[in-house]
Amino acid sequence: MLYILVIAVLLWEGFSFYRSFYQTYEKTVHASVGRSLALSQVMNPEALSKIPGGEVHLMFFGDIMLSRSVGKKMVELNDFRYPFLSVASKTQEVDIAFANLENPISNRGKNQGSIYSFRADPRTVEGLVHAGFDVVSLANNHMWDWGRDALEDTINILKQANIQGVGAGKNEEEANRPVITRKKGVSFGFLAYTNLMPESLNARGDSPGLSSFEEEKAKLDIQKLRSEVDIVVVSMHWGEEYKTESNDAQKGLARGFIDAGADLVIGHHPHVIQEVEQYKNGWIAYSLGNFIFDQNFSLATREGLGVLVTVRGGRVTSLERQNVLISTDFQPSLNTLSQ
To answer: Using CA atoms, how far apart are residues 272 and 223, in angstroms rounded to an integer?
Structure first.
């Protein structure tokens, strides 16, 4: 009986030792793995985000105009998110949402004289934030509609809302500076130009204005940016209003930009959709038409195009077109067209 008791004690002691040893070993292994993971993140924070299967999604849209009848509708409803309510669930979920902002956002400034001058209430930025817009082009023919003060207010209001404006600035350096952002370890660079405005409205020295545009300089800008980022996007405000096909000048510029190193050329201004083409290793959307606008006089101006771009491994792997239909009350909706 004593012999059996001794054996039982020895077995229990052995079991207790093994359990203690295993628990200590398990904790040590987990701690080691945790330290290794933390160390890899400190030494190379992008390594894990570039693992196979990691994707970055971008959505591009055309003209957003939050003034005139669209602005009146928001005031009437006391809801400055109103134009975006039907699309926000889709624009919020992508990594980068981009559009052309077709008006200054300000309650200051002086109308520069056009009957088509736009200026949106500062509260309209709530809609851009709600929809999750990350970058907007300011290089267009309406950004100077209410002069210097309104342009500076626009830049300030966007910055306060954590939305990056590209293609205009408070001085020459800022106006011509690309926007560079990183998502999931992939770097994206944005440039924005328009060839529709006189050089007198370009930023000069310490004076605010639009980015300067000259074809060969733009190509040099693209080449420089190409050496700094994985994906280069060029936004271009160009073309002829209400023309459903791009012209030879647009084609020449866009293809030259791709040759210089751009991955995507995104066009707007015609207020109607123009063609999308793949050129060499890049994609060109000549005009995405309207996204939010009050041009209810035709179906063509109530239709637009959204482009969903997938980037994987630091390159564009797919482009999906989505139909935009703007309601008569200025709310766009989205439907997939083709892969």
So the answer is: 30
Instruction: List, in order, residues 6 or more apart from 133 with CB less than 8 Å away.
Output: 91, 97, 98, 99, 163
* pTM (predicted TM-score): 0.84
Q: Which residues touch 217 (CB under 8 Å, ≥6 apart)?
A: none
Give the pLDDT of residue 120.
Answer: 98
d(CA 243, CA 99): 20
What is the per-residue pLDDT for 327?
Answer: 98
pLDDT digits 0-9 by tens, 295-315: 999 999 999 999 999 999 999
What is the spatial distance between Cα 56 and Cα 295, in angstroms, rounded to a whole number?
Answer: 33
Report the pLDDT value the prediction gives residue 337, as an integer from 0 to 100. Answer: 62
Please report the pLDDT score of residue 113 as a whole number. 81
Question: Which CA distances in Å does 101 have to 85, 128, 142?
Answer: 18, 10, 9
Exposure b/e, 19-49, CB count within 10 A at least 16 = b? eeeeeeeeeeeeeeeeeeeeeeeeeeeeeee
Backbone angles phi, psi at 122, to 5 degrees: -55, -25
- Percent helix, strand and coil across the chain, each to the nearest 5: 35, 30, 35
C-alpha 102/C-alpha 120 separation (Å) is 10
Give me the phi and psi of 188, to 5 degrees please: -125, 135
328 Cβ contact list (under 8 Å, min separation 6): 296, 302
Tell me: the pLDDT tens digits for 13-47?
Answer: 544 444 443 343 333 333 333 333 332 333 333 43
Angle between helices 215-226 and 248-260 (to 10 degrees): 30
CA end-to-end distance (rounded Å), the chain: 81
Give the dihedral sign, CA 62/269/332/293. Answer: positive
> pLDDT by residue (tens digit) across 280-300?
999 999 999 999 999 999 999
CB 149 within 8 A of CB 107: no
